[in-house]
């Protein structure tokens, strides 16, 4: 625990940055089982919003565990610390004026309550999205072959198999990815953000998207990571 520390205020407030960026910061928090579709929907939402000119940034479980949280595993205590750190990062991004999409299993209600509280204190909107599918669907998809390994006992404490997933009770948005297409899921979140006044509606598409493959390769290279499931 750090002691004898005092907050040092600056002259530039988040309102100044929001005016400069012509948008307010917010966090879209996607929670759900492995294979539920968090990353896929998050990628689609980021693309949808970026094309409309919003400054949006994706935080993703696997990716963050290559860097910032590479010292954390999957015990309850490590997952709690994982979510706390990500919440602080998302809060800082929101303070800058960025809309972040966080795709983490975040299996414990208590940890998500902490994430919400961190945002509330900072005055950053927090939108919890339950990316919902039956375990059987997620397991059948098994995009990384992890369920198969977990069933064979090669991965311990795997969420949904031998570790809990506590579903949100009152999420702001709930999407069933076994019923809706990827784009319908992303659109449902975007519509909620607009309907609640969290973001201002934008029709224009001013920012051309760069070529897909080189950008992903560059990002992976920069983070020392292989590209997994990068099709969008
Ligand atoms: N034991 C265990 N349980 C769950 N998931 C596991 C595990 N071991 C590795 N993985 C891989 O890690 C990804 C989940 O990381 P998260 O940071 O989102 O997890 S958590 O929020 O801290 O619970 C998860 O990614 P997703 O499949 O995208 O959810 C897996 O690729
Ligand atoms: N409507 C949908 N939304 C999201 N993913 C879907 C949908 N329908 C099928 N899928 C597939 O389900 C898998 C979800 O994997 P992923 O996005 O990595 O999940 P998670 O990040 O929750 O582990 C992908 O293979 C994706 O193509």
Automatic annotation (TrEMBL):
Annotated InterPro entries: APS, APS_kinase_dom, P-loop_NTPase
Boundaries of every APS kinase domain copy: 24-176
EC number(s) stated in the UniProt entry for this protein: 2.7.1.25
Keyword Kinase: yes
Transmembrane segments: none
Acyltransferase among keywords: no
Keywords: ATP-binding, Kinase, Nucleotide-binding, Transferase
Top EC class, one word: transferase
Signal sequence bounds: none
GO terms for MF: adenylylsulfate kinase activity; ATP binding
SUPFAM superfamilies assigned to the protein according to its UniProt record, in alphabetical order: P-loop containing nucleoside triphosphate hydrolases
One record GO biological process: sulfate assimilation
NCBIfam families: apsK, PRK03846.1
Purpose of the protein: Catalyzes the synthesis of activated sulfate.
Family of this protein: Belongs to the APS kinase family.
Protein name per the record: Adenylyl-sulfate kinase
Organism: Chondrus crispus (Carrageen Irish moss)
């Amino acid at each position: 625990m750090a002691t004898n520390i005092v907050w040092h205020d600056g002259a530039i407030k988040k309102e100044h940055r929001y005016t400069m960026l012509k948008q307010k910061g917010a966090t879209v928090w996607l929670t759900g089982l492995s294979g539920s579709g968090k990353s896929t929907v998050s990628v689609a939402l980021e693309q949808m919003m970026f094309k409309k000119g919003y400054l949006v940034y994706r935080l993703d479980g696997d990716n963050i565990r290559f860097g910032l949280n590479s010292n954390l595993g999957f015990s309850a205590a490590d997952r709690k610390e994982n979510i706390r750190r990500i919440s602080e990062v998302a809060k800082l991004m929101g303070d800058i004026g960025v809309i972040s999409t966080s795709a983490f299993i975040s299996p414990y209600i208590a940890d998500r309550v902490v994430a919400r509280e961190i945002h509330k204190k900072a005055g950053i909107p927090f939108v919890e999205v339950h990316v919902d599918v039956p375990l059987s669907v997620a397991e059948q998809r098994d995009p990384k072959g992890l369920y198969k390994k977990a069933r064979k006992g090669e991965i311990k404490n795997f969420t949904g198999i031998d570790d809990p997933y506590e579903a949100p009770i009152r999420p702001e948005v709930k999407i069933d990815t076994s019923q809706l297409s990827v784009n319908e899921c992303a659109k449902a979140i975007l519509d909620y953000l607009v309907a609640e006044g969290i973001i201002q509606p934008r029709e224009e598409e001013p920012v051309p998207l760069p070529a897909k493959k080189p950008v992903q390769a560059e990002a992976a290279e920069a983070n020392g990571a292989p590209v997994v499931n990068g099709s969008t």
